[in-house]
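Morning, I've got a small favour to ask if you have a moment. I've been staring at a protein lately and its backbone has me curious. You're getting the sequence in one-letter code plus the fold written as tokens. I've dropped the whole record in just underneath, so have a look:
=====
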Amino acid sequence: MSKGGGGSAGGGGFSMSQTNIPPWVQGPAQDAISMASTLANRPVQTNPYEQVAPVTADQQQAYQQVRDLQGSTTGAFNTAMQGYQNLAGQAAPITTGQLTGQAQQLMNPYTQSVIDPAVQQMRQGLATNLQQIGKNANDVGAYGGSRQGVTEGVAQGQEAQAEGSMVSQLLNNQYNNAMGQSFDLSKLNLGTGLTALGAMPQLATAQAGEAAKEAGLLQTVGQAQQQQGQSQLDTQAGTWQEAQNWPVQNLDILLSALTGTPYPTGTQSFSPQQKPQSNVAGEVIGGLQTAASIAALFA
């Protein structure tokens, strides 16, 4: 609705226009502004609920087990490496002195266990034979005679010859066996040493791989904990940003309510009006022209 007005012919004048809002608009608009003010004045309310799931007990236990694994195999690897190093010393050239020495060591138990009992048995047989020779001489009344001495000497010589032949044969056979065993033992030791030398790099590689695996597991645990911590930091940062943006959001709510609500506006202006000037000659000429026009109508 607009209104306008003017002054008299000789004086100044003014004009005014005004917009009136219907009552059915004014009520809701005021309610909207009141609600916006209430929302704008409301204090910040952050999310009261957990936004980052906490680490579970099973995860904590798994983390600790991974930590306990660190270096758990070092002792076993070191023991195995020490054993290989000890065996690696056997990877040496086979020498005759080595073979002879080992053969002698192998023969000593054989001599004590086989030859010595055999010699002792033969000597016991000689003693028995000598006793029988003495008895026979005594029976014929020739005990202690020259014939008895000759007989005993023959028996002793036969026993010594048999003993020497037996010992020589046993020693020869055993020496050959001992030399063969010594050579086999040297080859076995050499092969064991070479195997140890070849296994040491593999063991070192396996140990390094185990250490890398343990480090990888520990890194995985660290990354999981870092992600957990980062999630918590992100949540805190989001809460802080929400609090920082809260006044701005409230201001936007209030401004939206104000700018979206129509309200009465009015304009008023004043402008002087000029009195028209009189022109007599023009009026006369105009009158004559009017009269001529009328006469022509009735001719």
Q: What stands out?
A: Residues 146-259 form the longest helix (114 residues). The helical segments are 23-40, 57-69, 74-88, 96-139, 146-259, 280-298. The longest strand covers residues 13-19.
